[in-house]
Amino acid sequence: MRCRAAWPGTRPVRLFAWNIRQGGGTRLAAITAALIRRDADVAVISEYRGGPSAERLRVALGAAGYDHMTAVAPLHGCNGVLIAARHPFRDHGVLSVSLPEPFRIVGIDLEGIRMFGVYMPNMMAKVPYWEALLGALSEAARTPAIAIGDFNSCRAYVDEAGAIDKTAHFFEKIEAAGFCDLWRDRNPDRREFSWYSTRGNGFRIDHAFLSRTLAARRADPLLAC
Questions:
Q1: Theoretical Cys-Cys bridge with 69: which of 84, 109, 111, 122, CB 3.0 to 4.6 Å?
Q2: Phi/psi of residue 220, each to 5°?
Q3: What is the tens place of the pLDDT at every residue in 119-128?
Q4: In this structure, which CATH number among 3.30.70.1140, 3.60.10.10, 3.30.450.20, 2.120.10.30 belongs to the domain 12-219?
């Protein structure tokens, strides 16, 4: 998932979100090469895996020019989210220390925008993460803000063929908080999956939610997903 936007008063910034699966492993060289090809200024990487994998990823990203990274690392063997950028940012750390695995949502301020990198767990385990994120987004709704990453969540019969996900109601709540689903806003009737299970059924579980302040720039040709 990639976005290119002109943040208020600044040059265009390219944002790229990617679930690299279990820390990337032997694919790290290919992963960093793909980021360079996409000319991404900011990378939001989910399934950032704690332990030696985390250090290998950080070294690889640093060598690729991403010298600025969120400091929080997942526990050994656990997966979280990492934000890496070519330019300095203010690192806010985890969204909430009260979450079971707080390293799954981290926040930064970059070029005048509040950004949340997200990697939610599966099934009902993601409910406290949604609730914590909604609280933060409600406070940031009047500012340029974005929550982007792997939410492991989807709308019934729209982002999935059936109604497996029992947390779909959070999409309505995030809209009520003043945020829009950028991809759905641009593709109201289109179905496109971002992940397929081993049984072949697809889901769109990766999202970018923009505050209305930022989404108002969607008419700008520089804002695209």
A1: 84
A2: -70, 125
A3: 999 999 999 9
A4: 3.60.10.10
